[in-house]
């Protein structure tokens, strides 16, 4: 099951910031790929639907910057 091939159904819950500024290790890559921004690594819990149709609650991590939005979303682990 691909951890990148999914869509988020509904709202994210328990969203929190894991790292920001210099704490975002790949910020150089993010700046080159998506543009300069105040990058933050965040996590939250959401209901996700995988490409094969299976649905589960899962912990999702992503990077985001103001004006750019969420990029590189990844399912870290399934809950339940």
Characterization of this structure:
- By secondary structure, this protein is mainly beta.
- The chain has one domain (6-79).
- Helices cover 10% and strands 60% of the residues.
- It has a 4-stranded antiparallel beta sheet, with no helix packed on it.
- The protein is elongated, with a radius of gyration of 13 Å.
- The protein starts with 5 loop residues before the first strand and ends with a strand.
- The mean pLDDT is 93.
Strand order of the largest sheet: 1-2-3-4
Mean pLDDT: 93
Instruction: Please state the overall shape, judged from the principal axes of the Cα atoms.
Output: elongated
SS element count, helices? 1
Terminal CA distance: 17 Å
How many beta-strand elements?
A: 4
User: What is the count of structural domains?
Assistant: 1
Pick out the low-confidence regions: none
Order of helices and strands: EHEEE
Radius of gyration: 13 Å
Q: Strand percentage, roughly?
A: over 45%
Defining key terms:
80 residues, mainly beta, 1 helix
List the helices and strands and how they pair.
Blueprint: E1 6-20, H1 27-34, E2 40-50, E3 55-65, E4 69-79
Give the gist of this structure.
The chain is mainly beta and 80 residues long.
């Amino acid at each position: 099951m691909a951890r990148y091939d999914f869509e988020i159904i509904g709202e994210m819950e328990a969203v929190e910031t894991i790292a920001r500024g210099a704490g975002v290790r790949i910020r150089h890559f993010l700046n080159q790929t998506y543009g300069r921004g105040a990058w933050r690594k965040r996590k939250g819990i959401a209901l996700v639907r995988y490409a094969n149709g299976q649905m589960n609650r899962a912990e999702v991590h992503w990077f985001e910057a103001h004006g750019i939005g969420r990029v590189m979303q990844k399912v870290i682990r399934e809950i339940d």
